[in-house]
Amino acid sequence: MRILSFLALAVLLQAPAAHAQVRGDAAVIVELMQDFGLPATLETDTEGDPMIDSRIDGTHFSVYFYQCDPICASVQLSAGFDLARPLPLERVNEWNRDRRFGKVFVDSSGDPFIEMDIGLADDGVGRKNFDDALETWRVLLSEFRDFIDW
Q1: What is the bridge-based pairing of β-strands 59-68 and 72-80?
Q2: What is the pTM for the complete model shown?
Q3: CA dist 66 → 71, 81, 90, 106, 120 (Å)
Q4: How does pLDDT run across 75-118, given as a tens digit for each residue?
């Protein structure tokens, strides 16, 4: 009976962690990304804010943190592509018009970037929703690589 009670208590103690809210703690987000199966290395950007370096299917991307005091209110996933020829603005507009997630822009050289924001302010988001956002990002990167013939 004691073993059963101990197991029940252990399950109850672990249950909140499985449903815990994801907030803008960079070290925790690194762990969550790694649990999701992504390589993730914590770094610092030029502003001194946390930044994560990662890859999906061979495509490098960064996770930038915003409004950090000390927990960050949001993150932005961003990937850039160095193309031989500039991506025409008509194609950028096509992507942005036809898709709900993943905004695209081009830099001064015409190289495209795709970005997706995840809001984590106040109570954060649930773990399942965070994993869903990472899956959405994985799909977006795949679709965007196809879109630009990468």
Answers
A1: antiparallel
A2: 0.85
A3: 9, 23, 30, 22, 10
A4: 999 999 999 999 999 999 999 999 999 999 999 999 999 999 99
